[in-house]
Specification:
six-stranded mixed β-sheet; seven-stranded mixed β-sheet; alpha/beta
Length: 618
């Protein structure tokens, strides 16, 4: 037992809250994250939900977790945590392997009785010894202390027990010297319409903070490094919310009203819910009866002149495939958001994977090319949603935005941008001058980018028809001519390829003449791969790094970048889809693979170890 508090100063620290799915771990984790972001810390979170709606209380299958890393140079939620909060015996058993040696484990000792240990399948009555824990364990009577704090509240026992997560939050705020006033600000916002609950949680969070302050037998406390941030207004934002806000910015910058036709599906539903709140900004968000209706309603809205969007996950993308093909042949702008999850079929609906890549690239009948982009982080979801909308409108094509459950549910600190930081989006409208010339046809194209003009219904002199049957290249009339069909197929493909002239090139990090290995990934693995590359270079192993956010078409300098390295290592959360895609495009590249398909993001140490193994065997 320590006799005094020891203080550790760290560049970044990792905290993991865990308990039953009804214990409010996501809520207190989010509040702790927001408080830290408000203090100028960088943050990265990983909400780890169980797939079950509500597993039996105290069971291993019902454990819910929320991990957050705060500090400086934060790109991932961390491989292992400095502090674990375990609200019951099952949470401890499921999460103990996430704790660093010598870290701190806070347990609610009231939830470690014989019945609790039995539910969590312990073999003995000593869970600390049974699990071989080598950490500082702080036994806290969280439930008892919560009841004592609310003895005169008038709340029933069930309501009192629900408040114990805030006792744990108060204790963690003390541990990391987080100001309670910031946490109380979020409490007041959350429970503004429930004054009795607000008062109760306020008492409990103060009780938790005071408990930490008053205990004389202590554990390590932490001081977190921070650095000056760019001036501005900051908030903690998750990827799904950032996606919704990026679409709103695109609507503002294009002058086209935003329409979302969608159907609820985990883990994409938050996008529909967020946009449904934004009627004040002219957003039309419609919950359709199924996935097919979602994409078809969006196609109708696009024909009518809206910035049209549909959101889903992998199973829904499969159902939308015929509709996307219709948008391809009609050459209408459409943004399709796929928040990827574990599959196939229902699979692992609350877990993350990158296994929809081939479906996004090729999952439609016929030659049906679309643009594909993928954000690298929760914050980047804003930028890449904007980019998906820009490309869709300016190039008159469907664009698939591949996010995933990790960055969709995860969050980062984000500086809210000024409007002038993003460019105007210029819809390729049919001009009045061209109408006045007469003889306009709906598939006339710009000679440079092969984009057809967007004739908004109601425009005088621009009456036209679109549909799913092949059209004549010149007249736009239905055509079954084989030579014309091949010409249209190749034209639609060339239109997508020319988007490469309108997107940024690949940027390589940690590049130097001595680096003959390039570590690369795509989409939401960015933080883990960049951190792994940084660690490898710190060890003296020269490894360059790049992350793809534009998948189809690839950036124009892709071949030049890949040709500079003896070995290309592609790390992705699937069996090697992007590696196959690159190998097919660049047969001479020496491509190696790091793959994981466990419904969990990479650990940095996994990537470092696998990269070293490949380098040492080359």
């Amino acid at each position: 037992m320590l006799t005094e508090t020891s203080v550790k100063t760290l560049e970044k620290v990792v905290v993991r809250f865990s308990g039953d799915s009804g214990d409010g771990m996501q809520l207190v984790g989010n509040i702790f994250t927001n408080v830290s972001a408000g203090l100028g810390n960088e943050v990265s979170t990983f909400p780890d939900y169980p797939a079950e709606i509500r597993a039996p209380q105290g069971s291993l299958g019902g454990v819910s977790g929320f991990q957050v890393s705060v500090g400086t140079n934060v790109h991932t939620p961390g491989d292992k945590c400095d502090v674990l909060v375990a609200m019951n015996a099952a949470a401890l058993k499921q999460n103990v392997h996430h704790v660093k040696e010598g870290g701190v484990i806070i347990i609610d000792i009231d939830s470690f009785k014989e019945a609790d240990l039995k539910k969590a399948l312990y073999a003995t009555d000593d869970p600390i010894r049974e699990l071989g824990i080598r950490a500082q364990v702080l036994d806290v009577p969280i439930t008892t202390m919560t009841k004592a704090a609310l003895a005169d509240s008038g709340l029933d026992n069930k309501s009192i027990i629900k408040c114990r997560n805030f006792f744990a939050l108060g204790l963690v705020c003390w541990l990391f010297d987080r100001p309670l006033e910031s946490a109380l600000h979020f409490l007041r916002k959350k429970f503004a319409r429930k004054p009795a609950i607000l008062e109760a949680n306020t008492k409990v969070i103060n009780a938790g903070y005071d408990y930490g302050h008053n205990i004389h037998a202590s554990v390590s406390t932490y001081r977190i490094e921070s650095r000056p941030a760019r001036p501005g207004v900051y908030t903690d934002i998750n990827g799904n919310t950032a996606t919704a806000w990026g679409l709103i910015m695109a609507s503002e910058k294009s002058g086209r009203p935003l329409f979302l036709g969608s159907y609820p599906i985990t883990p994409a539903t938050d996008i529909l819910q967020e946009l449904a709140k934004r009627k004040d900004l002219g957003v039309k968000a419609v919950q359709m009866e199924d996935e097919i209706a979602g994409v078809c309603s969006a196609i109708g809205a696009s024909f009518a002149g809206d910035l049209a969007v549909t959101s889903t996950s992998g199973p829904g993308l499969a159902l939308k495939s015929e509709g996307i093909g219709l948008a391809v042949i009609a050459e209408l702008p459409l943004v399709v958001i796929d928040v990827q999850r574990g599959g196939p079929s229902t699979g692992l609906p609350t877990k993350t994977e990158q296994t929809d890549l081939m479906q996004a690239l090729y999952g439609r009948n016929g030659e049906s090319p679309v643009a594909v982009v993928a954000p690298a982080s929760p914050v980047d979801c804003f930028t890449m949603a904007f980019e998906a909308a820009r490309i869709a409108i300016e190039h008159m094509t469907p664009v698939i935005l591949l996010t995933d459950a990790f960055i969709g549910n995860g969050s980062s600190a984000w500086r809210i941008p000024d409007a002038d930081e993003y460019p105007e989006i210029r819809p390729p409208y049919l001009s009045a001058e061209r109408i006045s010339e007469g003889g306009w046809r709906p598939y006339e194209r710009d000679d440079n980018n092969l984009v057809r003009r967007w004739a908004i219904p109601g425009t005088e002199g621009a009456m036209h028809r679109l549909g799913g049957l092949e059209k004549d290249f010149k007249t736009g009339a239905i055509s079954t001519d084989p030579v014309n069909h091949e010409k249209m197929v190749r034209t639609r493909q060339a239109k997508i390829e020319r988007i490469a002239n309108d997107i940024p090139g690949l940027e390589v990090i940690y590049d130097c003449p001595e680096a003959d290995t390039l570590l690369l990934g795509w989409g939401g693995t960015y933080g883990h791969l960049r951190t792994a590359a940084a660690q490898l270079n710190a060890q003296g192993r020269k490894v360059a790094f790049t992350q793809f956010r534009y998948i189809k078409p690839l950036p124009a300098n892709t071949e030049e970048v890949l040709s500079r390295y003896k070995t290309i290592i592609v790390a992705e959360l699937n069996t090697g889809m992007f590696a196959d895609y690159l190998q097919a495009r660049f047969p001479s590249a020496n491509i190696k693979r790091i793959n994981k398909i466990q419904g969990q993001p990479f650990l940095v140490e996994e990537v470092v170890s696998a990269t070293l193994k490949i380098m040492d065997n080359e």
